[in-house]
Design goal:
It is built from six helices and six strands. The chain is of the alpha+beta class. The protein has one domain: 50s Ribosomal Protein L5, Chain: A (2-Layer Sandwich), CATH 3.30.1440. It has a six-stranded antiparallel sheet with strand order 2-3-1-6-5-4. A hairpin with a 2-residue loop joins strand 4 and strand 5 (about 100-105). The longest helix has 14 residues, at about 65-80. The protein is globular, with a radius of gyration of 15 Å. It starts with 5 loop residues before the first strand and ends with a helix.
Length: about 150
Amino acid sequence: MSHKHVAYIDIRFSVYATEDPDKVVKAVHQILPADCIDDIVFKQKTLRGHYGNPITLFETRIGGRDAIEAFLKNLGTHLKRPERESLLEEIDLHLEKGSLYIRLDKQAALQEKIEFCTADPIRVRIRFRKKRMEDIVRICQELGLQP
């Protein structure tokens, strides 16, 4: 498997005052491999929104080889064909300086589905050791992130 080509994975998401933090964290846990959840710790930072409402930013970095492999396998297994095709067609919109950026739907994650979205996403950054688009596309195909 090409997990050796991935340096790390960053996951970030926001919880707004109108959301239940436990519910959002539970949704994010649905996209994580079950055997790695205890090893993945999110740092929290409180920010202020446009109207002074508190926003809690959650961030983590997955760096261990086993955790990276488990996360990528889980992502590849649960990503539906339309998402994989969309990623292949629009790969240039998701790549920047050797990183693949994808945005996952919080609501879908609550139902144990992995779907892309743009509004209020779970942000995932997969940092590759190689920087050329052709290499990254090949690695994504090997990982099952593309058809």
